[in-house]
Amino acid sequence: MEYSPFGENGKIIVSAPVPYPPLTVDGPNPQIARLLGVDLASSKSEMTSICQYLYHSWVLPSTADSADSLLKRIAEVEMHHYDMLGQLIVKLGGDPKYVAVQNRPLPWDARMVSYTRTPASAFRDDLMLEQAAIETYRRQAAAISDPHVVAVIRRILLDEEMHLLIFRRLLSETSIGSRQR
Q1: How far is CA 99 from the centre of its chain?
Q2: Res 101: pLDDT
Q3: How far apart are CA 79 and CA 142, in angstroms?
Q4: Sign (positive/negative) of CA torsion 24, 145, 49, 164?
Q5: Residues ≥6 apart with Cβ < 8 Å to 31
Q6: What tens digit of pLDDT does each residue of 10-29 get?
Q7: What pLDDT does 181 receive?
Q8: Which of 45, 74, 108, 161 could bridge 98 with an S-S bond, Cβ 3.0-4.6 Å?
Q9: Are 85 and 159 in contact (CB under 8 A)?
Q10: Whole-angstrom Cα Rg for the chain
């Protein structure tokens, strides 16, 4: 089910209005833990999203003044995702280090964050980060055998899809605003 982040009263909602499932697992599973490590601390991870959205909230010019609090609220939701993933990794028997293991171990690095300082570029980079997360979570939901982990991933996906819609609107409004000047 898809939710709209745009409420009737003009307030933007940054988290889907349904509860998160309990953080349980069928049992230890290092393979699933390793998959979730990519979501935790890779270039397209929750860690990168948190840092990037906070950075953009701090540096965007005052023309994007309404976006700063919105970006911070989205970062808070990403922090919740980050915390849930870390807990699941431990329950699966993994170690939630700041290292994503894909072909080889790759430590998380602040160079993974987009440090652009213009609204259009920032929102475009944020949108691309959300798109990458959504693609990864969808692939994982289809590949993971533990229904408890899949339920958490699907719930996280609801938030990420809302964030994507928000960034699309921010980018559109920024593009329209820059054309009117």
Answers
A1: 17
A2: 83
A3: 24
A4: negative
A5: none
A6: 789 999 999 999 999 999 99
A7: 45
A8: 108
A9: no
A10: 17
How distant, in Å, are the alpha carbons of 32, 95, 101 from that of 104? 16, 16, 5
Q: Output the pLDDT for position 92.
A: 98
Measured on CA atoms in the order 74, 133, 146, 151, is the torsion positive or negative? Answer: positive
Q: What is the largest CA-CA distance in the chain?
A: 58
> Rounded to two decimals, what is the model's pTM?
0.93
Residue 11: which residues within 8 A CB-CB, separation 6 or more? none
Torsional sign, CA 154, 156, 159, 160: negative
Helix (H, G, I), strand (E, B) or coil at 49: helix
> Length of the chain in residues, anyone?
181
CA 14 to chain centroid: 11
Structure tokens, 97: 């280090």
59-99 pLDDT, tens digit per residue, is 997 655 588 889 999 999 999 999 999 999 999 999 999 99
Within 13 Å of residue 104, how many CA atoms lie on the same side as its CB? 0
